[in-house]
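OP here, attaching both records as promised.
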Amino acid sequence: MDLVELNKIFDVKYGNKFDANKMTFLESGSIHFITRTSKNNGSIGPVTKYNDIDPFHAGLITVSLGGSILSCFVQPNQFYTAQNVAVLIPKNSMSLNEKIYYCKCISLNRFKYNAFGREANKTLKILQIPGTPPSWINENASCNNISGIIEPVLSRNISLADREFKDFIYSDLFDIKKGKRIVASKISTRGDCPLVASIDKNNGIRDMLDVEPNHDGNTITVNYNGSIGEAFYQENPYWATDDVNVLYPKFELNVFIAMFLITMIRKEKYRFNFGRKWHKERMEKSRIRLPANAVGEPDWAFMEEYIKSLPYTKQLVPTRGAKGASLNRQATQKTFYDF
C-alpha cells in the first residue's frame, strides 16, 4: 500500500478557534460545537449561529490536534470548532465510507503523540496515510444508509437536571445470583448459547457454545472480577461464568430501563479493583443512585422515557413484545475496519 502525505488528499484548515464559554448552547439544533473530546463525534452540543459567521458544512472531517489527539470524525451536521481542531476538506469527491476509512487511518497514528505536550499542529499535514482506499471500502453499503438510525423513540427533550436522585440498595431492587464456572470440555463445542464472561466488550459475550443456558434473558450482568463493574443487558438466555454477577429485577425491566441502569452501575467501577472485587455479598449491600419519584421509589417511568428521548433508541425497540425477545438492532456482520 502506497502512503502519501495527508495534504495530498485533503485541504487542511484550522478551525474557528472559538471559546466554548462564548457560545450559546441549545437543547437541540443544526449547528454543533466541536472540541478536542473523543466522545459524541467531538461535539459538546448544538449552538446558535455565532456573529453571523457561517459554520463549516456537514460532511467534512474534524481532527483533534491536542487533548484527545487525532480523535477524528466525519461531521453529520454543520459545525464550529474550538481551539486545536483541524478541518479536512477532501480534494476530490469521496464517499462516506472512504471518509470514515481515513478517519480510522488518521487516528491509528495517535501513538506518535503520546509524549506530554506533543501535539499534532505542525505535523498533521505531512502525516502518512494510504493514497487510495482499498477496493472493499465501498462494498459495505450500510454506512451509506444511516438516515433512520439516529432517531430517538420519543422526539422531545427530557432533562436530568431537575430530577431528585436517591440511593437504593441493590438487594432491594434485584435478586443477585452468581455465575458458574464452565468445564473446559464444553468450551470447544460451538453452539447457540452466549457465554457471558468478565470482559468489557461485545456485550460481555466471549463465545457461543453448545450448552444449556444457566440464566434467563431480560437480566443484567455485572463483572465482579476481571473487567470489574462492566455491566450489560442480556436480552436472551445465556451461560454466565463464575466471574459474573447476574441481576434479576424485582420490578418490570425492559431494555430502556436497563440502559439507564447499566450506565449508573458502570459509574461505580472506580470503587473496585483486583484487591477489592465486587462479589455477590458486597454488591447486595452496595447502593445505586437513581431518580426517585414523589414517594421516594425509583422512578422507572422517567428512566424509560429519558432513554427513549436519546438518539439511536429506535434501534432498541423489540420486534416482539415478549421478554427477552430478539431486538431489531442494525448490526454489520463484516468488520468495517479490517486492517
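Record two, same layout:
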Amino acid sequence: MTTVKKLCVCGVAAMALGVPLEASAQCGTASWYHEGARTANGERYRPDGISAAHRSLPFGTIVQVRNQRTGRTVTVRINDRGPFIRGRIIDLSRGAKRIIGMDGLAPVCLAVLGRGPRVASANMDEGRTARRGRLRMASKSSRTRVASLRQKQRVAKLSRRDRSVTLNRTTLASGRVDGRIVAKPRRKDRAALREQRARSARQG
C-alpha cells in the first residue's frame, strides 16, 4: 500500500511538472560515469558533483535515486542525457554513486521531486560575457569621446580668452589687426597713441 501511495504521489508531481509518467517513477539499472568536459545542457561537467543523466526528464529536474541493495538515497539534478544502453535508466556522476554505495551497476528506483533552479549553459554565459565586454567597450569609447570633446571646448575657451587679452592690449595706430577691428585701447594706451601721432605730425 505504501508503494502504491508513493507511485501516486510521484505521478501527480510528474503531471504537474509536465514530466512523462513513465519517467517519473522508474525502477531499473543505474550506471555512473566520470568522463566528459560538458554536459548536454552546456554546463561544465564535475565528476565529483551530484548530478545525473536521463534520457527524457527535462534539464533541472530533481530526482531521488534509491539504491535497492543498500537502501541509501541521493537527490540529483538532471543536466545530461543518457544512458543509451538498453536496460539502464539513469547515469549518475561519480559523486552521486559514492553516496548510495554503488560499485559498478546497481538496481535503483527513481522518484521525481520537482524542478530545481534553471542553470544557464556555458554558451549563454559566454554570450553574456561577450555582451558585457562590448557594452564596457562602448561605454569606455563614449566616455573617451565626451572627455575629448570637453578638452577641445576647454582649449577653445582658453584660446578665445588669450586672443581677447592680446587684442585688448594692442596699441596699433590703425586700430586693426589683420583687417579686424581690435578692442578699444585703455586710457593709458590712448595717451601713448596721441603722443605717437603728435610726434609723427611734427616729424612730417
